[in-house]
Amino acid sequence: xxxxxxxxxxxxxxxxxxxxxxxxxxxxxxxxxxxxxxxxxxxxxxxxxxxxxxxxxxxxxxxxxxxxxxxxxxxxxxxxxxxxxxxxxxxxxxxxxxxxxxxxxxxxxxxxxxxxxxxxxxxxxxxxxxxxxxxxxxxxxxxxxxxxxx
Length: 150
Fold this sequence. Notes:
Layout: H1 2-19, H2 25-29, H3 39-61, H4 69-92, H5 96-120, H6 122-127, H7 129-148
Helix pairs in contact: 1-3, 1-4, 4-5, 5-7
C-alpha cells in the first residue's frame, strides 16, 4: 500500500510544483474564448487526474518484474516533469507560444506513457485516457489563447 501512496504522491507533487505558477492578474486580463472553463474547474479536475495517474503508475510498478516496466515508468516521470513545467512556461513566463510547443511534446509523452502502460496492464493504460483527453483540451485552449492574444 505504501507504493500506491508513493506513486500518487509523486503525481501530486507535479501538480503542486506547477501550481506555484498559477493564474494571476495577467491571465485574468487576457482575451479568452467563451468556452474557457472557470478557474475553479481546474483544481478538482487535476486532482482526480493526478490520483488516477498515480494509481496507473502503481499498477504498472506492481509488475516490476517485467522488462518493459522501467521504460514505462521512465516515460511516466518524464511526462510529469513536462506537466509541471507547462504552468511555469505559461503563467510565470507568460510564453503561450513556448507553452504550446511544450504541451505538444507533453501530449506525445502522455500518449507514449499510455501505450506503454497499456502493454503492461491494459487497465493502467485506460486510466490515462482521461488525462490524454484533458491534455488535448488544454492544448487546444492554449493554442486558442495564444492566437487571441498575439
